[in-house]
Amino acid sequence: MATLRQRYVDTASSGGDGTTTALSGTNAAYASLQAALNAERGDLVSADVYLRIECAADTGTADTTLVDQNIAGWTTDATRYVEIHAAAGHEAGVEWDTSKYRLSRSGTGGSVFVAVLADTSGGIAYGRLHGLQIEADWSNLNSATRMVGNLIWSVAAGTSGSDVRIYNNHFRWTGTKAFTFTNTSAMVSGSPWTNGASPTPKAYLWNNILSDETTVTAHASATTFINWDNRNHDTYLWNNTLRGALPYGFYGDNGSDRLHYLKNNLVAGVTTAMCLGSY
């Protein structure tokens, strides 16, 4: 049975090795989620461990460091995976809470991507993300061709498949921009990048809140709250709440090897249709 490797993040910390919740000293919590993932990246299978990272913000300071794990070096499987979650008292709720841990990004002109946890170069094929607040601010985008994404988990599944579980999180877009956007964005998206992965890559998203709080002239015509597409995979979307004036709630591209299951989701305010693609 895999052994737990417990690590901590606190935005109030001066930075340490993440082995305790202390805010100073060599064993202090990591100061950002990116610092934790960079330091802990490795072969969890050979080490026979699963990695759990607990995130807090004791002083209410946002984690503004870009999380980008588009880097080879992660090896995970069904029992030796990466779990990222909010500490007790910092769990996401219905209302956004700036006293809790939150991963927050604002572009300085270019496209904004808050978290890239896996991509074609490698990354985390087996992972859990729960209880977090994650946001992207559109205010500083300098072109209508820009794209924005809150969580991008493009699983490089290889032949070992993948299992991604995203639940009890609060995602949102904010900001004001007088643009009619031309490039499609997605608030939460993912796409396996390997044909014929076996077992079939699976993604589970449940009990998440996704909220569009932007003021823009118009979003691009195919912008969605949740976009899961490309290559063979199964996606399960249950009990999520989507609110705001995006064109679509869900997008899943057509294909006999791509199955998308929706159940008990609440969608309010979309301007075109709940679904685009095959569900």
Describe the structure.
With 279 residues, the chain is mainly β. The protein has helices at residues 33-40, 44-47, and strands at 3-10, 49-56, 67-68, 82-86, 102-106, 112-119, 122-123, 126-130, 133-137, 148-153, 163-167, 170-180, 186-190, 202-206, 209-218, 224-228, 233-238, 241-243, 248-252, 258-263, 266-268, 273-277. The strands form three sheets. It has an eight-stranded parallel beta sheet with strand order 1-2-4-8-11-14-17-20. The model has no long low-confidence stretch (mean pLDDT 88).
How does the SSE layout of this entry go?
Elements: E1 3-10, H1 33-40, H2 44-47, E2 49-56, E3 67-68, E4 82-86, E5 102-106, E6 112-119, E7 122-123, E8 126-130, E9 133-137, E10 148-153, E11 163-167, E12 170-180, E13 186-190, E14 202-206, E15 209-218, E16 224-228, E17 233-238, E18 241-243, E19 248-252, E20 258-263, E21 266-268, E22 273-277
Parallel strand pairs: 1-2, 2-4, 3-6, 4-8, 5-9, 6-10, 8-11, 9-12, 10-13, 11-14, 12-15, 13-16, 14-17, 15-18, 16-19, 17-20, 18-21, 19-22
Antiparallel strand pairs: 6-7
